[in-house]
Specification:
The chain is mainly α and 107 residues long. It folds into two domains: 51 residues, no CATH class; 51 residues. 60% of the residues lie in helices and 6% in strands. The protein is built from three helices and two strands, in the order ββααα. A two-stranded antiparallel sheet has the order 1-2. α1 runs parallel beside α2 and α2 runs antiparallel to α3. The radius of gyration is 27 Å and the shape is rod-shaped. It binds zinc ion. Zinc ion binds next to loops. The site of zinc ion has 8 residues, from loops.
């Protein structure tokens, strides 16, 4: 339950209130729905921010590091052709996992 401020007396009241309990001023229902939408938008932004900056982006940067290291390993001249094939397969698997999220990593 969100708390809003009465536009008449400025005191806190429930968003479900139709009348201010402090001063009795009527509470406009269209304003309530606007506040609900604002609250929902903020909630959605917070969820999106947590989703993108939380474990997901950690995993993303870790995977990007792993892919970069993988291709560096692939470019080593000391690897035999069969080792190169194996390393390339691992690199491609890593890239596939991130391909949808990071299309610019596609080769
Ligand atoms: Zn009031």
């Amino acid at each position: 339950m969100a708390l809003l401020n009465c536009k008449e007396c400025g005191k806190a009241l429930s968003d479900k209130a139709r009348v201010c309990p402090h001063c009795g001023a009527p509470f406009e229902s269209d304003k309530v729905s606007v506040w609900i939408w604002i609250a929902l938008s903020i909630f959605a932004l917070v969820v999106a921010a947590v989703w993108w900056s939380g474990p997901m982006s950690k995993e993303e940067s870790d995977s990007r590091d792993a892919i970069a290291k993988c291709w560096k390993m692939y470019e080593k001249q000391s690897l035999t052709p069969s080792e190169k094939v194996g390393v390339a397969r691992v690199c491609e698997e890593l890239e596939k996992k991130l391909a949808l999220r990071l299309p610019y990593l596609r080769r």
